[in-house]
Design brief:
mainly beta, 2 domains, four-stranded antiparallel sheet, globular
Length: 117
């Protein structure tokens, strides 16, 4: 999958997510008037029937390469965060890769290795 967030000006942002395996995409335009100083990927468990469901075991996922305004984001280890559910760590990121534009995230409490650059 690929994802992009583009500032269209006047507080409008276009978000596009592409499923490159199935050749499908989703695009939405949203209003946002915040400082526009960062972008984040947030992985969450779904809400079902008004309750947060247990995160499914998704194995491991790679986010590489990432770009910010067409350039290297310069990731540092402090950019990552873990997910806790019911006092248990259920999702853990790796350290950034050697060229600081990607990381892996794995189900569970063990940090995966960084992607190979």
């Amino acid at each position: 999958m690929t994802a992009s967030i583009k500032n269209d000006g006047n507080g409008d942002w276009t978000i596009t997510i592409n499923n490159v395996t199935e050749n499908e995409s989703f695009t939405t335009t949203q209003a946002y008037s915040g400082p526009a100083e960062s972008a984040e990927w947030i992985q969450e468990a779904p809400t079902i029937g008004g309750h947060v469901a247990t995160l499914a075991n998704y194995g491991q996922t790679t986010f590489d390469p990432g770009t910010v305004n067409g350039g290297n984001p310069g990731l540092v280890i402090a950019d990552g965060g873990v997910m806790i559910q019911h006092r248990k760590q259920v999702s853990t990121p790796s350290a950034p890769d050697s060229d600081t534009d990607g990381s892996n995230v794995a189900y569970g409490s063990t940090a995966p290795s960084a992607p190979v650059s």
